[in-house]
Design goal:
Elements (H helix, E strand, L loop, with lengths): L2 H5 L6 H5 L3 H19 L10 E8 L2 E8 L9 E2 L5 E2 L12 E5 L3 E3 L2 E3 L2 E8 L4 E7 L16 E24 L7 E18 L3 H14 L4 H10 L4 H14 L3 H13 L3 H18 L2 H12 L3
Parallel strand pairs: 3-4
Antiparallel strand pairs: 1-2, 2-5, 5-8, 6-7, 6-11, 8-9, 9-10, 10-11
Helix pairs in contact: 5-6, 5-7, 6-7, 7-8, 7-9, 8-9
Length: 303
């Protein structure tokens, strides 16, 4: 092949310029195809600190954490000397570009109001207490040397706990969700150390707005609205009005059970007992032992 001749023939095709036979054309096409793959392909190997995400809903608020997970690999991590992160020094709380936490609504973190949005988590490990910061400037990533205290959204201290067994790979979880879904705790765990901080949410205003809008367009929402009012100590007369409408529309055993609870809260024990008995009978016919049991417990408080 005369490459120089080919380069001087811009108006000719590659095959014409090189005067290739069909077999040679096919071989060249295969070669070009293989070269194209080689030019774009990259060798993939496991990352030393793999990426991870943890997500949950607390109340009605989305909470998500994105981070990278370094491993011990025989190293000492926290302590006074000869460790990766000595006590009192800033840590990006993970590896690579740092750890991000986001909230879909305004929250409280360890009692501090934090507006909805995304933040970096920085920490200062200690022997028995850690300092934790939520940082507003995402641009610095994991660059702790660029940390500017004026850009903190929150800064607080939390107690650390000693674990009985080591955690090999740095792990963040969101757990300890309260029964009323108004709070949860973020846990950082690595080596023999665990640290937790509390997140609190307020969903009442959002629920009340939803109730106001949706009970007007869908009477089927009366049940949820009535139960919410009951369980959050709101206007019991309004709850009773809604549950009566819900039961009139659908006198199912699960609706009658809630009606009995609301009647009890309104001081109508006789009405509550009648509703509970009707609910129990409906649950028995449906073979639902859970609601039979709940009604039996409720009826004990009505006698």
């Amino acid at each position: 092949m005369n490459v120089r001749r080919f380069l001087k023939a811009p108006n000719a095709s590659i095959f014409t310029a090189l005067k290739l036979t069909t077999t040679m054309k096919n071989a060249l096409l295969l070669l070009l195809f293989v070269m194209g793959i080689a030019a774009t392909a990259q060798v993939q190997t496991p990352q030393p600190s793999p990426a991870a995400s943890v997500y949950t809903v607390v109340g009605l608020t989305d909470v998500k954490i994105d981070y990278s997970r370094p491993s011990l690999k025989g190293r000492k991590i926290f302590g006074e000397k000869d460790v990766m992160y000595p006590h009192g020094t800033i840590w990006r709380t993970g590896a690579n570009a740092g750890t991000k936490i986001s909230f879909s609504d305004d929250v409280k973190v360890e009692g501090i109001v934090v507006p909805k949005g995304e933040y970096l988590i920085f920490t200062w490990p200690g022997a028995t207490e850690w300092t934790v910061s939520l940082y507003k400037d995402l641009a610095i990533g994991g660059n702790t040397s660029a940390y500017d205290k004026s850009k903190e959204a929150a800064n607080f201290k939390v107690k650390s706990e000693k674990l009985t067994a080591p955690v090999e790979t740095f792990t963040i979880t969101i757990g300890d969700i309260a029964a009323d879904s108004k709070s949860a705790k973020v846990q950082l765990a690595w080596e023999y150390t665990s640290v937790k901080f509390k997140i609190e949410v307020d969903y009442d205003a959002k629920v009340m707005k939803s109730i106001e809008a949706n009970t007007k367009v869908n009477p089927g929402n009366y049940l949820q609205a009535a139960v919410y009012y009951l369980e959050n100590g709101k206007d019991i007369k309004q709850a009773l009005d809604w549950i009566n409408k819900a039961a009139a529309e659908n006198p199912a055993f699960w609706v009658l059970y809630q009606k009995a609870r609301i009647q009890k809260a309104a001081g109508d024990k006789a009405g509550a007992l009648a509703s509970s008995k009707a609910s129990w009978e409906g649950a028995q016919k449906a073979g639902n032992r859970d609601y039979q049991s709940m009604n039996e417990e409720l009826q004990k408080t009505l006698k």
